[in-house]
Amino acid sequence: MLSILPENFVAAAPEIGTYLTNCLGNKTRIDYGTGHETAFAAFLYCFFRIGLVNADDFPALVLKVFNSYIIMMRKVQRIYMLEPAGSHGVWSLDDHYFLVFYFGSAQLRGHQYIKPKSAKNREIVDAYAHQYMYLDAIKHVLSTKTGPFGEHSPMLESICNVIHWEKVNGGMMKMYLGEVLGKYPVMQHFFFGTIIPFN
Q: Which of 14, 95, 101, 140 is the 20 to 30 Å CA partner of 51?
């Protein structure tokens, strides 16, 4: 961490490093969940807070860096058979991830052809998963769960009935604030410091 930070930000390394360490899952419980995903988002946010990136960098941070992190964590999840961390099970979006759906729905806002209902069409999901984070997340769910989509992922299926991605995206943020950031079982493990203070 010290080697990638400019000299005047070296003091921030322990705090930023904590988020990086905590985004990889829990080594004792061998689990991974939305709190760990949130830790990676906090890791990226720290670079904005200390001025190493600006708002113009956000699309690249999400589409390149965050998406690469998700792809890596899916591999780790499969190899080490990570348990969901405090999963809501079928009543949440996914056992392990949330932000990938939020960012993915933002990426599809205003798309002319791909609509929320497209997530139920396996041909569309397979054809465009490499381009769109949301469809890639759906493909991952379909590859890790068995049975009808509506049974193992009723929340994701109900989202397919929303007409516009804008509404999906707005709803995702409300749900994230309530079900992840607003839940003590998730946030009790989150670290606050001088870069991201607890207010």
A: 101
Helix or strand run (H / E) with residue 31: strand 31-32
The CA-based angle 109-153-35, given to 5 degrees, is 75
Structure tokens at 88: 């809501």
Bridge partner list, 26: 31
Residue 109: both structure tokens together: 């806002």
**What is the Cα gyration radius of the chain?**
17
CA distances from 22 to 16, 18, 26, 31, 67 (A): 10, 6, 7, 11, 17
Rounded to whole angstroms, the Cα distance separating 67 from 38 reads 13
CATH code for residues 10-187: 1.20.120.1150
Q: How far apart are the first and last CA of the chain?
A: 26
What is the per-residue DSSP string for 100-137?
HHHHHHHHTTT-SS--GGGGG-HHHHHHHTTT-HHHHH
pTM for the structure as a whole: 0.91
> How far apart (Å, rounded) are the C-alpha atoms in residues 109 and 78?
30
Structure tokens at 121: 């069409």
- Residues 97/37, Cβ–Cβ less than 8 Å: yes
pLDDT band at 90 (very low <50, low <70, confident <90, very high): very low
